[in-house]
Task: structure prediction
Amino acid sequence: MSPTATPPNGPRLLAGAPIAAEIRSRVAADVEAFRSQHGHPPGLAIVMVGADAPSAVYLRQILRSCRSVGIEGRLVELSGRVSIARLRREITALNADSLVSGIIVQMPLPRHLPLSAVIDTLDPAKDVDGLHPLNAGLLTLGYEGFLPTTAHAAVELLKRSGIPLEGRRVVVVGRSNVVGKPAALLLLREHATVTICHSRTRDLAAHLREAEVVVVAVGRPGLVTGDMLRPGAVVVDIGINVVDGALVGDVDYPSASRVVSAITPVPGGVGPVTNALLMSHVVRAAQTQVAAAAGRRAPLTPVGKPARPRAGGSR
Ligand code: NDP
Result:
């Protein structure tokens, strides 16, 4: 991808809705097949701790998605003052419930509840949002496991939009365990040349100006502006921020859209794909659990295109 100017009609909008619809229709067929074979649909338990308003909106969207594809969504509402022991007991009960195929715990958790308490308790086979170290390890080593859904969505959106990644210079801004780091690993799996930037990075703009593809997951509105981007770059904005009551990303859309060749909208970019992919993870969890219960343990499966050594090592 050589740098090109922004198309005369503005950048290509990498909308999530059509990709999400495609994923959901496949998932709905898989759910139906599972239900007719096993007499019940795959199930997703959503543990919500405290009544955090933005989380509640997100959870309603997930429950709507569950209904639209036939997955049994179950909301487990706990008080914001719930003890670690009680939270653990709830997760342990869901681990043991054969009608629950996947479990997600809505973040952020109240301060007194360390994420490690959740991760510690969650059955990796039901960890459909890829939080557990076992799944993180599988991702790191290149095996099939549950991927953190948002990171998965960002990369899936690029792939399904036909954006080439192999050999491309990609900058990921943000290195959280749930978004930035897994996104970088997935991009590496696609053979991109990946740089990860974070709060201690010196001269973020210098890194960004080199990037053909930029993925931003920080949580700071307007952090990335058009003057920091390479002409013709492709931008995936994962950030979700509320500014004056409106949802905005981490990228300053007005200035970026004068420079880039393609960009995700916020809202309407990564979000819908995240939601649809979560459904697909639940179905896979259900299928894997049924197979394991029947004594068919899934072998470690390598994923991604194998590395292809080239004479000279670079091009
Ligand atoms: P975290 O707060 O966990 O991580 C933020 C990352 O950004 C950190 O790695 C931090 O660096 C880095 N960072 C902070 N300030 C800067 C800066 N000035 N320059 C460069 N890097 C910086 O957030 P998450 O990863 O959980 O979420 C990121 C964003 O993605 C949020 O806006 C969140 O709302 C959104 N999100 C969107 C989802 C979707 O479906 N679209 C789902 C989940 C999240 P350091 O590590 O050094 O602190």
Observations:
- The longest strand covers residues 43-49.
- The CA atoms of residues 153 and 274 lie 5 Å apart.
- The two ends are 14 Å apart (CA to CA).
